[in-house]
Design goal:
This protein has 18 helices and 17 strands. With 562 residues, it is an alpha+beta fold. It has a six-stranded antiparallel sheet with strand order 2-1-4-5-6-7, with helices on one face. A six-stranded mixed sheet has the order 8-14-15-3-16-17. A hairpin with a 2-residue loop joins strand 11 and strand 12. The longest helix is centred in the middle third of the chain and has 43 residues. It starts with a strand and ends in a 13-residue tail after the last helix.
């Protein structure tokens, strides 16, 4: 059973309510103003409807709504993905709204958002209001209904259309910017040409500075190397560090046999002597190749001057020139790519063809389903007292493909035999509109995933034998899905498997309150009699009520549900 239980606390004029709901068709009735639609309002809030302070019973800090469902198998992946436990097979939605209008929500005891409640609603409840026909005048709703009947998935079509529009926008932008793109391209080519003459390399500026410093200080470097070599070797082999080191080695070597500690010191002196000889050798090698080179220094001055000149022109540090050149080349590549009109035109053409292929697939399903839907709704209209009436689904080709396909979808109705089908909003009778909406709802009720269907006074403007037919149709729906219907028609109420009565009490000195109670047997007969004849129930109306209830009794072997 989809909807098991509904609980309310301080909701509008309901102080407290715990209501168990049964499978099949349940009718909700009550006197005018008793608040028959309160349960529907509460259910809509539990499913993510707009929460406002008006729902809180006067004088109370908050209201609370709870709805318990059987967990639909199709909703299990969503529940798992969103972290909501559903191990026992039940799904509990809870929502509170305080006197300031602040709302909180829970799913199976875990905090949830109102948006998550709305996402779950598609699997749980489908509500048809008394003005449901109005949605049938909106192109998107009409198209969605036909697509649902045709099992036409328009996701691929919508994606293909978006890609096509993006490609067309890129092409239009490129065409409009051609003059500006040409000027920008010329500017980039000239700038790149200037820097290409310099051909600056990464880290080259640092290397140039190092080489320039060495060449500009060449004489000082030579003199420093000569002084260092002299300090190591001395003049004519005398007075330098290396001769002194040799003397120290010789002195210790003479006494090595007497003092063992000298051996370690000799090793240190030997190592030091070797390293100093290497240093002296390196200094001599440096002096052999070191020579002031004014020509090379002049060449470095010239190249560094080019770096500095271009850096000043483009207001960048010299070391940024290689990165600047690389960035201009990337900009030029992007510019030339965006200016490739042939490629952009090819992409737009290919995306249009992909969109058309997806649209034709959807159109084929619509074309097949349209007459089938028309036939089914026309048949339901005959049952609802619109004999000779006709329902048509019109597919009108569009000049250009749209996000929703190649055609517009509209519903036309001929309410009577011989009349010309017209747009739904042109049908004059309110009763005809309600019956038509009911015929469509009954025909398409099995399209959605929701296990519970709610009809809120969709039988407005209906009476007599047609009312009995409405009751039978709703009862038939109740064999496959749970149906809740707010009704003012005794014939509809008498067809229900269960009957709930909404009543209002105004106690002296207290606020008005509303209660909901299941009725069966004689109590149900008296409620149907009230619906037939008003508050004064006569023996005649009571007998008529019992007569109405007799055909609605459950088949043998099936226990009645209250």
């Amino acid at each position: 059973m989809p909807l098991r239980h509904l609980s309310l606390r301080d909701f509008v004029i309901v102080p407290a309510l715990e209501l168990a709901l049964a499978p099949g068709f349940t009718a909700l009735t009550g006197e005018t103003g008793a608040g028959k639609s309160i349960l529907i309002d509460a259910l809509q809030l539990a499913l993510g409807g707009r929460g406002e302070a008006i729902w809180v019973r006067e004088g109370q800090p908050r209201c609370e709504i709870g709805a318990e469902f059987d967990t639909p198998a199709t909703a299990l992946p969503w529940l798992r993905d969103n972290g909501f436990d559903s191990e026992d097979g039940s799904l509990l939605l809870r929502r509170t709204i305080d006197a300031a209008g602040k709302s909180r929500a829970w799913i199976n005891g875990s905090p949830a958002t109102v948006g998550q409640l709305r996402e779950l609603a598609d699997w749980l409840v489908d509500i048809h209001g008394q003005h449901a026909w109005q949605s049938l005048t909106r192109p998107a709703a009409v198209r969605a209904l036909l697509d649902g009947y045709a099992s036409a998935d328009t996701t691929a079509l919508s994606d293909a259309w978006t890609s096509w529009q993006q490609a067309e926008a890129a092409l239009a932008q490129a065409r409009a910017a051609q003059d500006g793109l040409a000027q920008e391209r010329e500017r980039l080519l000239w700038q790149i040409g200037e820097l290409d003459k310099l051909a600056p390399q990464d880290s080259e500026w640092d290397e140039l500075n190092q080489r320039h410093a060495r060449l500009s200080h060449a004489q000082a470097l030579i003199e420093a190397a000569q002084a260092a070599a002299a300090a190591l070797e001395g003049d004519d082999g005398d007075g330098g560090t290396l001769p002194a080191l040799a003397q120290a080695q010789h002195a210790l070597e003479a006494q090595r046999g007497i003092e063992p500690e000298f051996a370690a010191l000799l090793d240190v002196l030997e190592t030091s002597a070797a390293q100093l000889h290497d240093a002296a050798h390196t200094l001599h090698a440096y002096l052999r190749r070191a020579d002031p080179d004014p020509d090379q220094l002049a060449a470095l001055d010239e190249r560094m001057g080019l770096w500095v000149g271009l850096a000043r022109r483009y207001r960048r540090p010299p070391e940024d020139l290689p990165a600047l050149l690389a960035g201009w080349r990337q900009d030029l590549a992007r510019l030339e790519s965006s200016a490739d009109l042939a490629q952009l035109e090819r992409t737009a053409r290919e995306n249009r063809e992909a969109c058309l292929r997806a649209a034709r697939a959807v159109s084929a399903r619509r074309a097949k389903a349209a007459p089938e839907l028309a036939t089914a709704v026309t048949a339901a209209m005959q049952e609802l007292g619109m004999q000779g009436g006709r329902f048509e689904v019109v597919l009108a080709p569009l000049a250009e493909p749209a996000a929703h396909g190649l055609e517009s979808v509209s519903f036309l109705v001929a309410a009577h035999a011989g009349s010309t089908p017209r747009a739904i909003d042109k049908v004059a009778s309110g009763g005809e509109l309600s019956r038509l909406a009911l015929a469509i709802a009954v025909t398409t009720s099995q399209l959605g995933a929701a296990g519970t269907l709610v009809f809120d006074e969709v039988d407005a403007g209906v009476g007599g034998a047609v009312a009995a037919t409405v009751g039978r149709l709703l009862q038939r729906l109740g064999q496959d899905r749970q149906v809740l219907c707010v009704t003012h028609l005794p014939q509809v109420a008498a067809s229900a498997d269960q009957h709930l009565v909404v009543s209002k009490q105004a106690e002296h000195g207290s606020a008005t309150t509303s209660t909901v109670s299941p009725v069966a047997g004689e109590a149900r007969a008296r409620e149907v009699a009230r619906m037939l004849g008003g508050e004064r129930i006569s023996d005649t109306t009571l007998a008529h009520a019992r007569e109405l209830l007799q055909p609605a009794a459950p088949p043998r072997g099936k226990k009645a549900k209250a």
